[in-house]
Design brief:
heterodimer, A: 198 residues, mainly alpha, Four Helix Bundle (Hemerythrin (Met), subunit A), 7 helices, globular, B: 99 residues, Helix Hairpins, 3 helices
Chain lengths: 198, 99
């Protein structure tokens, strides 16, 4: 039963991953990634990581992918040019990928970690549930926890600064290299305030 | 299931993501492939945490998830900014910084 579930989820995860890189339309790539994330959540459950699986589905497959879908809908999925800056790049890349996989497999399978061939030790029923992870996060890993919250805040502010609508954008695009303030359309006379760039 | 299987699957997923980064042009799909690679790393972390019988690897995986979310937010912000400036969304056309 467990093995069947593993192979089912593994096929789903691998199929999703191949779908991401094979689909022409970025929208379908995002959908393939969602399939991949759900299959990965099943794998996490098999590894008795219930909280990580739940976070994967809620945060990743839910919130982050919605962000992707919005941006794909906004930008639109254009076809990619067939031009290759490095000759034979599309042929060479899978070969490099296979070489990397062979190398990683040799490294894993010939390692001296004897426990690799087992299912791992018996664990108590509460292994990996939200209470256990929360206790670890708030007691042993409090500093990384707070650091990641600051990182999230920085990323949110950074994204607003990067993607926010700037007043001078309209003028700068139509008149290239001519971005003097008096050349702006509809006569923006107010001096640039610190909040104007947000 | 032995932990080995999970580790080999994670290596396979990582290589798929790496190949995707090498063959695709669109920055959006390249971000998706980065997600694939980060998730493969997550799977390895959780598998090793199961192998040791210790939950700290799962905390690591959650921190990786946070970092991946930040990377997505900043990357998508960059893509929207590139699109607003009417620049081509193709990494081979955006090569001015390549020296």
């Amino acid at each position: 039963m467990e093995a069947a579930l593993f192979f089912l989820a593994a096929v789903g995860a691998l199929g999703g991953a191949v779908g991401v890189i094979a689909m022409r339309n970025p929208f379908f790539s995002v959908l393939a990634l969602i399939v991949h994330l759900f299959a990965l959540a099943v794998l996490f459950l098999l590894l008795t990581a219930a909280f990580v699986a739940a976070a994967q589905v809620v945060v990743y497959a839910g919130a982050v992918m919605v962000l992707y879908v919005f941006v794909v809908a906004y930008v639109g999925g254009g076809g990619e040019s067939a031009w290759e800056p490095i000759p034979g790049q599309r042929l060479l890349a899978p070969l490099i990928g296979i070489a990397l996989f062979v190398e990683l497999s040799i490294a894993v399978l010939s390692s001296a970690l004897l426990a690799l061939g087992t299912e791992g030790p018996e664990v108590e029923p509460g292994f990996g549930d939200p209470a256990a992870i929360g206790t670890l996060l708030l007691e042993k890993f409090l500093l990384p926890f707070e650091a990641s919250s600051i990182l999230l805040l920085l990323a949110a502010v950074g994204a607003v600064v990067l993607a926010g609508r700037r007043r001078e954008d309209g003028g700068a695009v139509t008149s290239t290299g001519h971005s003097a303030p008096e050349a702006r359309p509809e006569g923006v006379t107010a001096p640039p305030s610190p909040g104007a760039s947000l | 299931m032995n932990v080995e299987w999970f580790i080999v699957l994670s290596a396979l997923l990582f290589c798929t993501g790496a190949v995707g980064i090498l063959i695709r042009r669109s920055p959006l799909v390249i971000l998706l492939c980065l997600e694939l690679m980060l998730n493969a790393g997550n799977l390895a972390l959780v598998a090793f945490s199961r192998m040791v019988g210790n939950q700290e690897g799962q905390v690591f995986a959650i921190v990786v998830m946070v970092v991946a979310a930040c990377e997505v937010v900043v990357g998508l912000g960059l893509i929207v900014a590139i699109f607003r400036r009417k620049l081509p969304l193709d990494i081979d056309d955006l090569r001015e910084l390549r020296g």
